[in-house]
Write a structure and sequence with these properties.
One of its GO terms (biological process) is carbohydrate metabolic process. InterPro entries: CE4_u4-like (IPR049591), Glyco_hydro/deAcase_b/a-brl (IPR011330). By secondary structure, this protein is α/β, with parallel strands linked by helices. It contains 7 helices and 8 strands.
C-alpha cells in the first residue's frame, strides 16, 4: 500500500506543490521510556515533533528533558485532560458542561504555565483533549492567548486558524494498538489528495504505541523524508505561514 502514497507524492512533485507534513503527539506530561523512543525517532529522521502537553500534571522534568531535543515544540493540550461530559455523551473537557468562564480560565492558566516552563519552545496552539471543543468557546480563545487550534480532520473556517491532523496511528475502537499499515497508508493517500495546500498532520500517542505504531513511523519517515513531493515542517513554521 505504500505505492498509493508514493503516487500521490509524485503527483504533488510533478505539479510543483509539495505537501506540508507535520507530526503531533498527544498526552505528554513527564519523561518516560516511551517519550525517549519518540524523541529518538524524531532525531533519527530529523523530523520536527509537536508534543501536546497536559498542563495541570506537567512540570520541570519534562521541560529539562525537552531541552535536549531541539526538534521538539510544545502545544497546550487542554488543562487536565479530564472528562466533564455525562456518560451518555462522548468524552469532552472543553464543552458547555461547566461555566464558560471556568473553562477559559483553565486554558489561560495552561497557556501561561507551559510558556513559563518551555519558553520559546511553547507554541500558542490549543489541542483540545479528545479533539473536541464546543464551537461557542472558539471566539474566546484569542483573548486566552491562543493563535490557532489543532483537532482531527479537515480544517474548518472559524475565529482562529486550524492546523489539524488527519492520520491517527492508533486503533482506538479495536486493539488500541497501531492500526495496520495498509489502512494508515490509505488514510495518508486520501489526505494528500483531499487537503490541497493545507498542512497534513500525523497523530501519534507515544504512551500507547506498540511495535506496529513505532514501525509505521520509521517506514513513513524513510519513505517521505527526502521525497520532492513533500516537506516535513514544524508547528511554529505552520503558525507563521
Amino acid at each position: 500500500m505504500s505505492d498509493i502514497v508514493l503516487k500521490a507524492l509524485e503527483d504533488r512533485a510533478a505539479r510543483g506543490r509539495p505537501a506540508r507534513l507535520w507530526w503531533r503527539d498527544d498526552d505528554a506530561t513527564e519523561p518516560t521510556p516511551e517519550l525517549d523512543l519518540l524523541l529518538e525517532c524524531a532525531a533519527r529522521h530529523a523530523v520536527p515533533i509537536t508534543l501536546a502537553v497536559i498542563p495541570q500534571t506537567t512540570g520541570m522534568p519534562l521541560a529539562r528533558r525537552l531541552d535536549t531535543s531541539p526538534l521538539s515544540n510544545v502545544a497546550v493540550h487542554g488543562w487536565a485532560h479530564a472528562n466533564h461530559a455525562p456518560s451518555s455523551e462522548k468524552k469532552q473537557e472543553l464543552g458547555m458542561h461547566r461555566a464558560e468562564a471556568v473553562v477559559i480560565r483553565e486554558l489561560e492558566e495552561g497557556c501561561r504555565k507551559l510558556a513559563e516552563l518551555h519558553g520559546p519552545r511553547m507554541v500558542p496552539v490549543l489541542v483540545p483533549p479528545w479533539n473536541r471543543i464546543t464551537p461557542t468557546l472558539l471566539p474566546k480563545l484569542a483573548e486566552a492567548g491562543f493563535r490557532a487550534v489543532s483537532v482531527f480532520g479537515p480544517a474548518k473556517s472559524g475565529p482562529l486558524p486550524q492546523i489539524n491532523t488527519h492520520v491517527d496511528l492508533i486503533d482506538w475502537r479495536g486493539t488500541r494498538g497501531g492500526r495496520s499499515i495498509d489502512v494508515l497508508m490509505a488514510d495518508l493517500a486520501a489526505a494528500l489528495a483531499a487537503e490541497g495546500d493545507s498542512p497534513i498532520g500525523i497523530l501519534s500517542h507515544h504512551l500507547v504505541h506498540d511495535d506496529a505504531a513505532w514501525s509505521f513511523l520509521d517506514h513513513l519517515f524513510d519513505m517521505t523524508r527526502n521525497h520532492p513531493g513533500c516537506i516535513w515542517t514544524g508547528l511554529p513554521d505552520l503558525l507563521q505561514s
